Amino acid sequence: MKDVILQKLARGAYLSSVWLIILFVLFPLAITFWVAFFSNRIMSFPPEGYTSSWFLQAWSLAAFRDGFLLSLKVAICASLLAILLATPAGLAIARYRFRGREMINTILMSPLMIPAIVSGSAIYLFYIDLQVRSNVQFASTFYGLVIAHTLIAIPWVLRLMIASLAGLNPSIEEASLSLGAGRLTTFFRITFPMIRPGMTAGALFGFIASFGDLEKSLLIVGPGRITLPISMLNYLQYRTDPTIMAVATIQILLIGCALIISDRYVRLSKTF
Amino acid sequence: MQGDATLGTTKRLSIGVKGAAPYQLAAPALLFVLVFLLLPLVMMLRLSFFRYDPAQMFIEAFTLDNYVKFFKDEFYQQVLWRTLWIASVTTAFCLVGGVLVAYYIARTRSAALRRYLIVAIVLPLFMGNVVRTAGWIIVLDNGGLLNFLLVRFGIVPEAIRFLYTPGAVIAALISVLLPYMIVTLNSVMQNIDISLEEASLNLGASPFTTFRRVVLPLLLPGIFAGSVLCFILSMNAYATPVLVGGPEFHMMAPTIYLQMSANMNWPFGSALAFVLIALTMLLTIGSSIVFNRSTRASA
Question: Which domains, ranges and CATH numbers included, belong to chain A?
């Protein structure tokens, strides 16, 4: 009898700690949503009332509006460039066995492994060096940001390309070739439709990783050209109010949508 | 007929021989990463041996001064130790919490619940650390939720300062990094055969003994990989120490940024960056050696 009670108690403790831990992870995101609608001018509890005016207020602040648009543009350009660069590489690594394959894979995944603050610093110093040598400015330019963010996106495109190609049979392409279709025809009619889901998911994850990036961009952004996460960091270092929570809510919704769309191409619960 | 056949063979050959094809396919991406990431890293390594000069930024040299300064100066010693102990405590908590949640997710009977839980854990991973830390500021601030609740229910007479304390940094880091641990452990849990646990339970072992003697040993590779990942990520954390730790709370990554930006001491900043990379690599390689040895010993 005592044993049964003890077991029930242990099971209750286990279950409640599991849900508390999950809450611990999700709570900061949930509370952001809630506070974004408070009518209190400064951060305080309890809410005096609710309003959606902070979203308009956020859009009227140049730092957030410009930051949002810049991050959007950079993330789109970077994920497209990463698709162009990493899709063929993904094909090579997934389809061929060749000397140096492991090493090439490691090098292409390295932007994910190297501490972001370290690679961000290295890229920044490299840009300065280029500028001194050739007088072409990269640091605090749009192109400089796109290059750094392409590095962020490449590992994601590669990873999802390889994952989606793993389940496909290369003999379908061989059949197409041996039945007389040319290499280009085979690529556009057979290979491309097969790798399209992987490419789309890779581009979406590249977009997400680029949009949320903070550390790699910190040194590369310049006056008047600051990405959204950095604008938010600068703002949060001095004040916390419902406006910044409205901005955070918009970012959560945007990334959430991108994730739900990518879930249609690769199941999140199977990929992770 | 003859022509067709030859054509067929050459086409087959072009698939079979492969030769330069994979290299050509991989070349653009490889070149991009080599030029824009690995070359800059090599240049930064070289810069870390230059001499700092306030007037000229740096003077070309080959000196270990920057590294010596890091290991001699008490301030940077403290930064390093603070980073290491924060990372250790964070990893320990992530491990305990991660094991509990990953076990629950893997063994829950409802497939739908499992799927929703994994998605719920994966979603925050992509939200960006600034946004995820912002929520913790609302909770921990003097006018924040936690202080409001504590005062409201009369547990404390007035607001306690939570923000800008090591405890706050650790709590926020755990929350940010737990999903990495859960996802890593979950991938290993999925492959552990449930019938092993059932056998242990049938043979009379308690759930706790079953977990400790059957599940935990099989989970070891995940525990190892997840801990190394969490440790490295908390050592390299930027947004959380800056926002929750405040301007006086110095960890490695913000210190590197400060040297590169406001202080403009690039040689020293580069040296700091390489200390961080070296520590990261040392820990990864070192712990994998220890891990391999201990699993071989127990096998």
Answer: 60-271 (1.10.3720.10)
Q: Which residues of A touch B243 (CB under 8 A)?
A: 233, 236-237
In a domain, B210, yes or no: yes
Q: Give the CATH number for residue B125.
A: 1.10.3720.10
- Judgement on whether residues B218 and B261 belong to the same structural domain of the protein: no
Is B99 inside a domain boundary? Answer: yes
Query: What pTM did the predictor assign?
Result: 0.87
Residue B136 counted as domain residue: yes
- Residue with more model confidence, B3 or B120: B120
Judge contact between B231 and B88, C-beta under 8 A.
yes
Q: How many domains does chain B have?
A: 2
Nearest to B133 by CA among B232, B226, B230, B242: B242
Question: CB distance from B13 to chain A under 8 Å?
Answer: no
Sign of the C-alpha dihedral computed for residues A141, A147, A150 and A151 taken in this order: negative
Residues forming beta bridges with residue B51, ordered by sequence position: B59
Cβ atoms of A226 and A63 closer than 8 Å: yes
**For B43, which of A129, A252, A268 is closest by C-beta distance?**
A129
Contact assignment for B100 to A14 by CB distance below 8 Å:
yes
Handedness of CA A67, B238, B283, B121 (dihedral sign): negative
A111 alpha carbon, distance to own chain's centre: 13
Whether B90 and B235 share a structural domain? yes
Asked whether residue B235 falls in the same domain as residue B103, the answer is yes
Residue-range definition of the domain harbouring residue B267: 250-294
Residue with more model confidence, B66 or B159: B66
Same domain, B158 and B189: yes
Concatenate the DSSP letters of all residues of A159-217 into one string.
HHHHHHHHTS-THHHHHHHHTT--HHHHIIIIIHHHHHHHHHHHHHHHHHHHHH--TTT
- Three-class secondary structure of residue A222 per DSSP: strand
* Contacting residues for B116 by C-beta, under 8 A, at least 6 apart: none
Express as a percent the part of chain A with pLDDT over 70.
Answer: 97
